[in-house]
Amino acid sequence: MNNHAILLDLQKTGKFMMDKNLAWGTAGNISARCEDGYFISATGTYLGELELDDFSYCKDGEHLAGKKPSKEFLMHEGIYEERPEINAVLHASPFYSTFIANSNLQIPSNYFVESMYYLERIERIPFYQPGSRELAQAVKESAKKANIFLLENHGIIVCDVNIKEARTALQTLEYTAHMHILALEKNISLNGLSDETVKHFLHHSGYKPARDWD
Fold it and tell me: What is the DSSP string of 152-188?
């Protein structure tokens, strides 16, 4: 995919996130790896109204072109450094997922097909100031453990092999968080699948290639 196509896909993703209530205001930032570095939404941008010049080109901890990048660009870069197969990172604070990030609740991954795959591993990151090197380092240190990160009292991060998969992971995360909270509120016991069933699905269903976490 050439750089122009990547920027168009990021622009579309920002609008998708706003339209689906997966982002709000100027909270959040999105990025995608390019051939030599990565593009990230510029600081202060409204994800639902991104123009093609609302992105920054960064590499090796430096802002090389475009508008001033989001102050959290190093957080994205740490994931790209640790996970060469990852090509897209979405950071936002959708309501239900952030609700869980701000609590001691856990998000079950055994409710349905998409949750089993996209929410296979979820890591919690303690609160650090947004945009700080401490937050970027904490995310980098956990990057190999999961594709979903709950940032306590802050929001969430999803990352995946391409922008489309990252969008699907984000939507699955928020949908599952909503389902779980609603079940708790209504005192409904949801029937999750067994660990054995989940493991068999991930490795033998053919839904998508099983991830190698080693």
Answer: TTTEEEEEESSHHHHHHHHHHHHHHHHHHHHHHHTT-
